[in-house]
Major facilitator superfamily (MFS) profile domain-containing protein (Takifugu bimaculatus), 469 residues
Amino acid sequence: MKGLFLVEPVVALYAFSSFLIYPLVQQYVYRRFWEQLTNTTYPTADNTSRCLENNSQSSYHEEVQKQASLFSLYTDLFSTLPSLAVTLLLVAYSDRAGRKITVVLPLIGTLIYTLSFLTVSYFELNIYWLVGSSLLSSLFGGLSTFLGGCFAYIADLCADGRQKTLRMAGLDMMIGLLAGVASITTGYFVRAAGFNWPFITSALCQCLVLLYAVFILEETVGRVPHDAVALDGTPQSSALRHMISGVYQMFARASRRSRISLILLMTIFTSFSFAYIGGISLMTLYELNKPLCWTEILIGYGSALSTTVFLTSFVGVSVFTYCGVPQLVIVLMGIVSVMTGMLLLAFTKTTFLMFVVRVPMLLSIMPFPVLRSMMSKIISKSEQGALFACLSFFENLTNSVSVAVFNSAYAATVAWFPGFIFLMSAGLCCIPLFVLGVVGVIGVEAAVKHREAAPTGEDEPSDNTPIVS
């Protein structure tokens, strides 16, 4: 059977199955802690009743918030280190072993986590078993490995810089569209049938996408690229050795200006991811808190509206790229979008404003595909796996540290100002803004390749010239 060079269906189904359960994690943990601390069932008919000041259970409210936040912290910390190591090894080694390994293994890990969650929910086991299942699933690489492999897959297929930017943005858009559909479905699923059916549906979707990835998705790395550097003259080398050599060669073979540009772009990518993910990760807990006290239906609609940023960001990248807007300006607009939204979110106290405040953040995903594309054009084709391994490693590490820091800050400040973490997120966006200004002054050297007869005049002017001369 002839395979297809289409990784988008894999990303789409993976996004749907993952976001079908991701919004449930905090809600499920929140309800279990509520039942443990109050010795009563969670009020599902009207969530606002638990927030009333004259309610005898209102004194437990802040404690439940703290315990749920700390549980998220523990889960993230226990799964970070294995996922980081596997991401570096697999995505870097995919330059030689092929990209499909970075897609298939994370799918298996996610399926294990989903089935574990279903087991805990169905048999009402101790929720701390979820920490162990998160650790086990991280041994298969997790989301960072999956996305790193998919972006490297796209980089293999696209030679043109504009096509690469648009197709990478298309992956982000695919995540947002299916995640939005799943988020809306989740609320009604929980209201009608409880937590078990969403987990079963997610597991079935993951089995389907796993079959597609194994039997239909075609491999892009059929042989070692012609510009790859042999490690020791032998046809094969260990994954660890190849990973170390690949990352080293990615920087060593580049010119001094390319190395500086690559490091600055990585700094923008990771610092922006830290600020953005840290703030977004606590929106569900903030919505469960008083005075909002959202139901699962409202949380589903809120999550769906939040995921529309993937679609609007894709449209933004497409339109701005077509109009010739410099890529650094596109990144700037995305960072300002996040800063504005987080500042408004910190002082939002009503349901209407909680929906409205998401509007300024509609362009918040734009920096990620643009920065990935810019970095991809700086290095040679044989080093794409090493690049996306580094990006996935730093993204995973940054996001894990970010979630830990923001959850700790939220647990410490929820009693006196729950919106503090959103102000902190907006303030931290100043770091990528400053580095972006430095890049705008010095300019970005794109696609520097050590090929004897390869002119580099194909790159877009907006990538090579400084914004400020």
